[in-house]
Every structure is written in C-alpha cells, then in structure tokens.
Input
Amino acid sequence: MTHAPINLTDPFTIAIAMVLLVLLLVQVGLILRNKTLTLGRKSLRAALNVFLWLALVGYILQISWPVNRPATHALLAGDDVPATYVRMLQDSLRIQERFTTGTFKPNPDSITLVGQDFPVELLTRLSQSTVRWIPYDQSGRIYNLRWKGVVRQGEMQHITGHIQSPDRRLLRVQFGHQTLDSLMLKPGSNPITLQFPAFGRGRIQTELVLGEEVIDTVRFYTRPTAPLQVRFVLDNPDFESKTLAEWLGKQGHSVQVLTTLAKNVQSTTGINRTSVEKGKNPHLVITDPTNANNPFVRRAIAEGKAVLFINLSNPLADVAAINRALGTRWQVMRYTNQESVPAGNGMTAHPYRFAHSLNQFAVAGYPVAMQQIAGRVGLSLLNETFSLALSGDTTAYSRIWYAVMAQLQPAEKNNVLVDAPVYSRLPNNVFVNNPVVNLPFLRVGTDTVRMVRSPLNLQSSAGALLTKLTGWQPVQDSLAIWVELIKKGNPAADRQVVSQFMRAHANYESIRTATSSQTRQESPNEVLPNWAWLTIFLICLTALWVEPKIA
Output
C-alpha cells in the first residue's frame, strides 16, 4: 500500500493542521481550568488526550520509516519448459524460489521468465516487478522466423530464423513437391537463411520441411511486375537472346530486337510491338560487350535506365571495354584454369568472380551483378541459359531471369512492404514507398492503418497495423497479406507475445525508474497496518473512558 506525501503548502492541508492544533489547545485548556481535579489527575488526563491527539495526527500523516528489506527473486517457468531444465537453470542462477504458471502467487521484486508459453493474464500481473527473459528452444522448432509479406515477382524472398536440431538434418523450403532452397543443419543451434526468387503471382504458400516433417508454413503475396519496354541491341542474334526475348514477351513485357545487318542497315522485330512504339526510350537495354559504345546503350545510361550485358566471350577484355565506354568500375578475377564452371541446374559460367565495389550488388545465387552509376548496369557471367528452356525446365529458366529482372526493374510506385509473420492483436509495421498519392490511411481488410510520412524520406511512410482479423486480408484492393492467429501451442507465436510484452515492460520500467529517481525513494518504507492504528485508538479511548471512573 502506498500513500501520497503530505503537501505542506496546500491550503486545505494547512487548514486541517490548524484545526488539529486548536483541538489540542482546547482539550488541554479545559483540563487545566477544571477546579475539581487534583494536579495528578489533571496531568494524567492531559497526557491521555495528548496521546490520543498524537495518534490521530500520526494516522493522518501515515508516518513511515525506511526498512532494508532484502530483495526477492523468483524463477517462473513456462508450460513448454521441461522440469529438469528448469531445475538445472535454477541451480546455476542460484534462485531460491521457483514457480510454474499454475502455482505463481506472489509478486517478487524481480522475476526470471524461462520459456515462452505463458498466459497473457499472468504476464500482466508482472508490471511491478523487474523482469528478465530466457527463451527456451524446443528441438525441431523454428524461432524468430521472418520473411517478406509482400514481394515483387522475381524479387528474392529471404527466410531467416534459428532452429535447435537434435542431429544432422536437411531443412527445405518447398512449393508442392519442388524444393526452392535447402540447408543442412548440424546438431545444436543453427541460424537459418533460405532464399529463392518469388515466383507466380498472388497468394503463395510454401512449407518448411525438416527431414520429412512439415514444421511451418510461409505465406506471402507476389505482386506482378509492371510491364517493361525492353530493347535488344545485337549484331548477330543467337539462341540465348532469342529465347530470352520470347520469355520476356510471354511475361507481358514489350520487346524490340534491333539487329545490325550492315553499316547503317538495321532490322527491327518485336513482341507486343504496339506497346514498344508508344515509348520513346525503353526501360531496359539488353546487349553484348561489343555494343558498349552503341548510342542506344549510352543514351539509356545517361537517362538513368538499365543496361544488361550478356554473351561475354573474354571477360577480362569485355569488362575493360564496358568500363571505358560507360565509366563503370567492373573488376573480375579468374579463380580456376578450367574453361567453365558449373552454375547449377546443368548451366555453366565463365571461371571468374566479381571483385567487391561500393556501388555494386550481386544477384543472389547466380554469377550476375549490378553496378549503379547514372543508370543501372548489369553483367552476366553465365554462358548459356537457353538450354534449360529447350530441355523443358522452364521453371529453372524462369527462376534465373526473374531474379535478374527484379534487380533491373525501375523503382515501383505504391510499393507496400510488410515484415511477416503478421499476428492478429499484435502491432505490425507497414511501409509504403514511392506513393503516387500520399494517402493518410491504408486499408487492410476492414481496418485502416494511419500512415505517417518519414521526416528523413518524403517518399516513404509508415504505420502500425493492429487487427483482430485472421487469414488473407486485402490491402488497397490490389494486394493481400496473411494474418496469423495466435493460438496456444504455437511456440513461434508464444515467443512473439512474450517479446512484445518485454518491449512494453521495458518502456514502463524506464518510466517507473525515472519517477522513482525524482521522488528519491532509494529504499522501501514501512507503515503501520490499519489494525495497529485501530488498536491504538481503542486503547486511548478506553483509557479516557476508564480514567474518570477511578476513585
């Protein structure tokens, strides 16, 4: 029980103090003026009245005194933690008291939480205690799992987290019966990084498989890329460029193939040609190193567009020619004497690797990289990819070029970014980049998210989504996000709840600590309980009642 300090400058408090003082003076004065009492009786009666007056003042002021009470510390184990592990942890931390969620009653000064399966009602009872948290990793379960809730078609989807594996096992992310990426786990704790280019369009559901057991589901939304205008600038079209042009046309892009037949003589063919002719300049130029000085290529870079170089024959000489023509800083290093090296799925690549550069980034999983100058310049060390399409492996072929094209796309408008998983009844961040119109709100299902523009980047805004809905929820009628239901027995969801509680508790603890330092309460104070005050009053009143009756 806490009591507010007495404010001696408050007029009401001063008035009460004056009344009490007058009451004491009146009582003592009446006793001293009584002619029938002896001096000894007057002294006794005055002492009893003064004692009663002091008891009344003490009760009003709630007199307290500091005590050096030893701090109490307890260990609270979640329902998901084995008792043997809890006992071992208790011994190592030298904690005297141990509780479970069913036996926890007191509210000690500090608590160590172990595990993540706690009732929300129990967590709310810990607001007055200092709390620290030790998560518990169940074997074979993935924790801190994160991925992109909305991705662009061809963009790399990254899945991260960590898992406690009992032995060497293969972890796969698969779509149907197709493995998208895999990772061999070692016994013990393993960080997880799985990645693959986003495929298909719309609502996508993949599964994380450990050995032969499906242990989690990853759902995300793949939005289609905006149609591009692509121009091939070639001297001699080959199977590689023809196959790529046909694939781009099937994806809805406008493709124009410009071939030089002789000096000042060019041939132009196209796919979705009507759309090509509407634009003055293409978004992307695909060519080979021999055309690095071509006016179309140089103009594209000067206008901030993208250029991709394919069909390298001599990487060292080709890179030097590109650098001279466009001002790039490509550097490649040969790392083997072989003519070519495997590049996955039966493909081969030149035996070179890219040297690091500050303005350079790679296409994950493939020997392809980009450099950002006035425009974006891509360079592929792959020998041939058309053989995949000819052999019927269109999935592998599409994965390569989805990943490459995602890095060559111009910045899209209304780019919605959501970190998944999104849980119902827990706040989740939502970002919108390059909005066409700065909307103050974003519609998610039947809810609205208030968006606030970033003071550092006016082309970005952020909001906090807090919804009770679950399942697929439409976003602005063009996208969708999956909202997970928090249910008991899901360790990943339970950990998210405890993590959210710890963040909120940390904020509350900082405010409470600041308040305590301002009031300078360095140690707890002890006060008399109400039953003690009642006893004192009864003794005083009984003594005053008995005293006149004593002969």
Summary: The CA atoms of residues 48 and 543 lie 7 Å apart. The two ends are 45 Å apart (CA to CA). The longest strand covers residues 213-223. Residues 491-519 form the longest helix (29 residues).
